[in-house]
Amino acid sequence: MRTLALFIIGTLFGATGGFLLAAANAVTLDGHDHADPAAHGMSHDGKDHAMMHDRPLDVDGATAPTLALTVTKDPMAGYNLHVVTENFTFDPQNASTTPVDGHGHAHVYANGVKLGRLYGPWIHLDKLPEGDVEIKVTLNSNDHRPLSVNGTPVSVSTTVTGN
Question: Can you give the pTM of this predicted structure?
Fold first, then answer.
């Protein structure tokens, strides 16, 4: 019994020491570079995911999506954001893939800080900063590029007072 207890204790200390040594030397168990977006399927045609947000996709003005936004205080806490679109289909199953005209998702921002992606018309915003907060929504293609018409982003914003 004593031998088994010593074996278990030795294994635990050995494994812990190995993990600490690996972490201290930035070694990962799966052997890929975590700083490389391509290693995580986040590359779009060899481009960094974050770079896609800076490359607008200009769409035809005649068929361009439109966007409206309503933000209402939730009776319990936070705010409910409702996005109304025309000529646009939320397409979450194709996020991070090839763009399709009139399909994609939205990005939601509070005071310029991205809160996340929106894959449908409603989202609850739980906590907002104190004071006046600019809520902005942009429509984005499947590959995350912001949609624009003649260089003008398809976006809408409003200001609410955070609590």
Answer: 0.68
**Which pLDDT tens digit goes with each residue over 88-139?**
999 999 999 999 999 999 999 999 999 999 999 999 999 888 999 999 999 9
DSSP string for the chain = -HHHHHHHHHHHHHHHHHHHHHHHTT--TT---TT-GGGGT--BTTB-HHHHTTS-EE--TTT--EEEEEEEE-SSSSEEEEEEEES-EE-GGGTTS---TTEEEEEEEETTEEEEEE-SSEEEE----SEEEEEEEEEE-TTSPBEEETTEE-EEEEEEEE-
